[in-house]
Queue: 4 jobs
Job 1
Amino acid sequence: MKRILVKYYKKGDAAYLSHRETMRAMERALRRSGADLVYTSGFHPRVKVSFAPALPLGVSAEAEYLEVAVEREPDLADMTRRMNEALPEGLRVVSLQVLPDYMPKLSRWARYGLYRVEGAGGSFHLCLRIDGEGGGRLRDALQKLEDRFGAGVDAVTRVGIYASRDEILEEYPDKVYFYHTENGELEIMEESGAG
C-alpha cells in the first residue's frame, strides 16, 4: 500500500462549497482517477482518505491537501488529468506525490494555517493553529487584525498548511502575524528553532 499526497486549490465559487461538499467532490474525482484505491471495510466502503482541517465557508485556498491510500503507485500525470476532468470549476489538483513510509500522516503534521488577508489596510499574512490543540477561530483572528489596523477585510485566502511556524518563516520571511488563541493577541512571528 502507498500513500499519495494530493495538493489542490479551491477558488472562485468553489470557496463557497462546504467542507463536506468539497470532500464529496474530491472523493468522486479520486474514484474516477483510475487509481487502485484502498477502501474501508464494512457495509458502506469508502475511499481511505484524510483531509486537512476544514476551511471556513467563503475562504479560498491556494494549497489544500488530502492524503489517499492506493494499492500500487499510479501514473501520477494521468491521475491528475482524470481528477481535474471530474472536478467542478474552481477545484483543481495542482500536484500529486507518493509519500515515503517515514513521512507522518497528514493529520499529524497539519498544525498551522497561513492566510493572506487583503483589505483597505493592505495585504497581511496571518498564521493560526488549525490542529485543534489550542487552535483558534479564523473569524476571531480576522477581527483582531481589523481592530489593530482599523480596516475591513475584503478577501481571505489560505496559502498553505505547515507543520511548524519556522517552516512558514522560511517561505515567508516578511512580516507574518500569529494569532494566540489563549489571550486573543497578535504577535509578529520570529524564528524560534521550535515548532
Job 2
Amino acid sequence: MNVLIVFAHPEPRSLNGALLDVAVRELKRLGHEVQVSDLYAQGWKSEVDRADFPSLADGERLQPAAASKQAFEAGTLTPDVKAEIEKLLWADVLILQFPLWWFSMPAILKGWVDRVFAYGFAYGVGEHSDKRWGDRYGDGTLKGKRAMLVVTAGGWEEHYSARGVNGPIDDLLFPINHGVLYYPGYEVLPPFVVYRVDRLDDAGFGPIAEGLRERMRTLATTAPIPYRRQNGGGYLVPSMQLRAGLENPGTSGFALHLDRARNSGQGGKPRPLGSFPRHADSGSSTVDDLAT
C-alpha cells in the first residue's frame, strides 16, 4: 500500500517524532511505500488568503470557497497545495499525526486541511438535488481509501472517558474523523490515542510503540468506524436529518451517526475507539525528548 503521514509537531525529538519513526520503520518493513508531509519542516503556510489564488484579479473580492473552486478547476492552485493533493491521490491510506492542543489539531494541520481540501476536490462534489445531496459522508473523491489519526494527549485516559471532565475522546475527535476524513469518502479507522504523555518515560514507551506497530500491521484489516453513509437512504433530503427510528437505543448527538449494527468486532457490541492497544514491549526504544 501507499501510505501518507501528515505530521504536525514542531520538535522532531518529541514523543510524536519517536512515534513517527516507529510507524515509518514498521510500514517500510512490511513493504509499504511511505511519504511524510512534515508540516513544520516544510514551513507550511496555514492561513487561506489571496496568495493562494494567484489568478484572482486585482481588486476582486476574495470569496474563499468560490476562489478555491475556480483555482482547482483551472489548475491554478499554488504548487505546495497541488503537491499535497497529488500525495492524497497517490496514497491508499492517510494518517494524520498530531498532539491534541486545546481539544483539537494544531493550527498548522488545520491550515493544511483548509488549503488542501479544495472545493471540487474534497467538497462540492456530485449531484445536489431533491434525491441526492452531493457525494460526501461515505462518498466522494477519496472513497475507497482509508484514514486514521495518531494523537497524543497530556491528560489521563479517564479524563477523556464517557464521564470524564474533558468529554469523550470520540466526541472530541468526531469533527476530524467524521467532518474532515469521512466527508470526502475515507473509511476512517479507530484512532490511536496515547494519554498522559507528559509523564511518559522510556519504560512506558515500549508498549506504546508496539501498539502502534500493531496498528500499522493491521491498516488493511481493521474495521472502520461505522459511520452512516449520507446517501445510503438513512437521511432525508434536503434537510439531511436522520430518519426517525434508525437511531440506536439510548443514543443522541454524534452517536446518532454511528450504525452500531455494522460493528461486529465484539459480537455486535460497540467496540471502544479511543485507546491504543496495550502489548508487552518487544524491544528497547529511546525517546530523546518526552514532550508531546
Job 3
Amino acid sequence: MTAARVAAVRALADDLRSISDEYTGTCTWALTDLVSGEHIGHNEGAVMPTASLIKVPVLVALYQAVHDGKLRLDDRVAYGEEHRVLGSGVLSKLSFGVEMTVRDAATLMMIISDNSATNMCVDMAGLNEVNGLMERLALHNTRLFLRLGDRSAGVDPRKMSVSSAADMCALFALIARHEAVSIEASEDMLRIMRRSDYRHELSAELPWNEMNMLPPDPRTAWVAEKGGSFLNGVRTGGAVMHGPSGEFAMAAFCEGGTGPGTGRGSEGNRMVGRLGKAAWDALAG
C-alpha cells in the first residue's frame, strides 16, 4: 500500500508538471500527501502574490490569538467604517455597526472571501502578529504587508501580500494534521473552509452537486480550501482535499498568463482547476 501510494505521488508529479508547463505565465505548485508523507513541487519556493489566499494565515493568527486568551470566538465585534473595503464580500454593502461574533467574521472572510471582514480579523489578530506567527512556523516567504484596501499598494499585488507554494502547502498540511494552534482550532478552521461558497480554484473541476457537496458522502469526500484572484493573471489556491482514497494538502499560484479567457474562465483559473482535479483523481477520488 505504501509503496503503491509513493509511486502514485511520484507519477502525479510528472502529470502536474506537464499541466503547469502549458501555462503562458508563471505557475508554481506544491503538494504533500498526508497518507504517505511524500512531497512534490514545482518552483515551489518562488515568492508569488497571494491575493485572497493570504486570508488563511490571517485565520490561523486569529485562532492563535484566541488560544492565547486575547479574545474569544464568541466575543461580539462591530463592523465599522475603518474596516470597509470594496471587492468581494457583503459587509461593504451593509450599515456600519452591524455586530457579529469573532468566529462569524472569520467565517465571512473565508467562505465568501469578505474583504471588510478580513480587515476586522486582521485588526483583531494584529498584522505584525500574523507575520510573526508565519515566521515562527518557518513560513519565511509569507507576509501580509497591508490591510486590505490600503491605496499605497496601488494595483501591485506583490505590495499587498506574498507567499510561496511551499509555504502555503505546509500551512494547509499543519491544519490538516491538527498541528496549527491546537487540535480544536485546526478542526474548526477545517470546518469553516469546508463551507466555502466559492469553488473557482483547486476544486473547480471536482463533481460538486447542487448542494455544494461531493458524492457519494460529504463525510468521506470534502475539500477545505481558499482561493484568490487579482490583476495580471494572479490566481491562487490552497486546499486540504479528503476523499475515499486518501488526503493531501496542496497549493498553486499563477501569475502573468496571457492565454484566452477572463474572470472565472481565465487561463489561471483553468490551470489551477486542472492541477487540483489531476491531484484529486490520483490521490483522493
Job 4
Amino acid sequence: MKKILLLSALFFSHSALAEVYEISGSAFATDGAPIPQYVASHHEKIIMVDPNAHAWGAYNAQGKLIRWGIATTGANWCRDIQQSCRTSSGSYRVYSLGSASCVSSKFPYPGGGAAMPYCMYFNGGAAIHGSDDVEFANASHGCVRVHVEDAKWLRYQFVEGPSVSNQYRGTKIVIKSYQTN
C-alpha cells in the first residue's frame, strides 16, 4: 500500500506547530478519487485516463472504479520534435503487451531507448506504461505514464490483450479530451 504524508503547519500565537497526518494512499481506496466512481461499462473492463485530472482509473465489468492513480499524459508541445504531443482522445483497445524490459523505439528522439516497463499499447505508438517520472502534468510524448507498480498491476492483474477468449478485443482504453482554454 502506498502511504502519502501530508505536512500541515498550524500556527498558534507566535509559535508554529507542525503536524503530520497519514492519509490513505492505497490504490484501492477509491473514495475521493478525482475521477468518477462509476462509468457505463457495457459489461467489460475499462481503463479511463483523464488528462485534466492527471489520473487513470481501472473499472470492473460492472463499471465500478477498483483502482486509480496519477497519470502523466502528452504535452501540449514537445520542443524536440517541434509539435504537439497530446495523447489522442477517444476509445481504443490494448493490442500489444510488454514486460518490465519494454523500451521506446522513438524516444528520446531520435534513437529511442527510454524505459517503458509493462507497456500496454493502445493507439499506434502510444502506450500506458510505468515510469519513475510521473507528475501532475501533461508532459509526455503521447504515452500515458503511471507509477511502475501501477503499470505492473495493470499489465498482469487487469489488462487483457487480444485473444480468442475476448474475440480479439483487448481491454478498452478511454482517453478523455483535454480541456480547451
